[in-house]
Structure to design on (436 residues):
């Protein structure tokens, strides 16, 4: 993945476009090797299948009723639907009718009950008139009857032999339910990815230290001290990663010195599949991540034509894939969602699809610069015509993390757009669905 680094003096057009960088990044990655694990189904939510699941039998296994009513043979019913049938028994879910239903007869049936032999159709109970006489119950059908109506066919949900979930599928709630319906009590999943995170900056104060790690401490939050700030990025990253079901290795705050940064790199690379840092990748005197990545790592790309998120470091340190995210909290989230998340999915063995970018109409003007992709924090809603419209959350400074909390989407504006006027089309990535 080595590539010549664009120098800092390079003009704007030397920056790498987002789509090209993403494609290049994905082509440089492959799933990390490792023996799969076998897990009981109730512990498999969020995990990624290591082998495909093939249905061993039909679901439902046999035809059954979708309604409360009467099971009949459609061939018995005349075109106008009017006929009297003798009721010869009942069928309940889990308690089938024993025997066969002869011509001219019907079986009282309830939702979920097996279709009795000799029947192929269910007439809703609302469409019959029932009467009792010495010979037992009779029904008079006074409604047209469509053959096979209100019957769930065997295999209509899943057919035996169907390759339902391929390897690489991240299991969600519906998948877990479907697997249970298929009698699959355990699945083979990829091992969890080990992800090491550290933040850099002498100005950072660790929240644990401030609160003594004591959650019963109800004292009011204290300001971090003059010139200092709480290390929010490590919390944001941990929260983003928790949605991706990884094994998190929290390496804490790393001081702005070459020695501390080198030790963090080496320690992280020795134990993780993926290493994520925040801060220290600009060209300031206190920015050592950049320098140590050059010394220790194999560099993929540095400077992207995007905002927020320039620069962003990507490459390898030892066997581990490395992302050096900017320090600005909004840039951390945006670069994570646009780059780290898709990379992590590939490394974890997931076959993932790119997030949807929906077309929306801007309702407010949006400032941007030509030549770069911009990700603004937006609020998307439907207008009175049902059309998707979007406005920004307000001021868009990369340090305003609350703008991310106020947003329900990222507004994606292409590099060739110079400015957005009300009524213009923009792309929208809904955070619900984008956030892990
Ligand atoms: P840097 O890229 O290291 O120059 O960081 C840029 C800015 O991002 C800093 O001036 C801080 O305001 C902010 N920042 C850096 N790291 C963190 C962090 N871990 N948590 C919150 N804000 C941070
Ligand atoms: Mg810094």
């Amino acid at each position: 993945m080595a590539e010549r680094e664009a120098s800092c003096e390079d003009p704007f057009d030397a920056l790498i476009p987002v789509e090209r960088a993403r494609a290049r990044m994905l082509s440089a990655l492959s799933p990390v090797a490792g023996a799969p694990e076998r897990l009981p189904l109730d512990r498999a939510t969020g995990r990624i299948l290591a082998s495909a699941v093939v249905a061993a039998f039909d679901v439902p296994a046999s035809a059954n009723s979708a309604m409360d009513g009467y099971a009949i043979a459609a061939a018995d019913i005349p075109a106008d639907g009017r006929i009297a049938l003798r009721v010869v028994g009942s069928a309940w879910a889990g308690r089938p009718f024993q025997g066969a239903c002869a011509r001219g007869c019907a079986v009282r049936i309830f939702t979920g009950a097996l279709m009795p032999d000799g029947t192929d159709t269910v007439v809703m109970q609302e469409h019959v008139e029932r009467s009792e006489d010495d010979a037992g119950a009779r029904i008079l059908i006074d409604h047209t009857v469509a053959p096979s109506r209100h019957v769930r066919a065997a295999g209509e949900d899943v057919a035996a032999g169907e390759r339902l979930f391929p390897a690489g599928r991240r299991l969600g709630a519906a998948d877990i339910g479907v697997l249970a319906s298929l009698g699959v009590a355990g699945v083979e999943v990829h091992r969890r990815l080990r992800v090491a995170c550290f933040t850099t900056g002498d100005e950072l104060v660790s929240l644990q230290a401030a609160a003594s790690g004591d959650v019963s401490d109800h004292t009011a939050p204290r300001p971090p001290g003059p010139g200092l700030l709480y290390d929010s990025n490590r919390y944001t990253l941990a929260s983003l990663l928790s949605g991706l079901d990884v094994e998190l290795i929290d390496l804490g705050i790393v001081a702005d010195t070459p020695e501390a940064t080198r030790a963090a790199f080496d320690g992280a690379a020795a134990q993780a599949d993926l290493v994520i840092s925040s801060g220290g990748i600009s060209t300031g005197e206190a920015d050592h991540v950049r320098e140590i990545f050059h010394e220790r790592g194999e560099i993929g790309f540095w400077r992207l034509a995007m905002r927020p998120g320039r620069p962003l470091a990507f490459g390898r340190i030892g066997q581990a894939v490395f992302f050096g995210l900017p320090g600005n909290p909004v840039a951390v989230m945006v670069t994570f969602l646009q780059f780290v998340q898709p990379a992590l999915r590939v490394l974890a063995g997931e076959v993932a699809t790119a997030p949807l970018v929906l077309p929306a109409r801007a309702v407010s003007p949006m400032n941007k610069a030509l030549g770069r992709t911009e990700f603004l924090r937006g609020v998307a809603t439907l207008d009175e015509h049902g059309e998707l419209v979007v406005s920004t959350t307000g001021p868009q400074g990369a340090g305003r993390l609350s703008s991310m909390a106020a947003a329900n989407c990222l507004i994606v504006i292409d590099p060739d757009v110079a400015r957005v006027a009300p009524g213009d089309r923009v792309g929208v990535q809904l955070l619900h669905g984008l956030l892990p």
In short: The two ends are 27 Å apart (CA to CA).
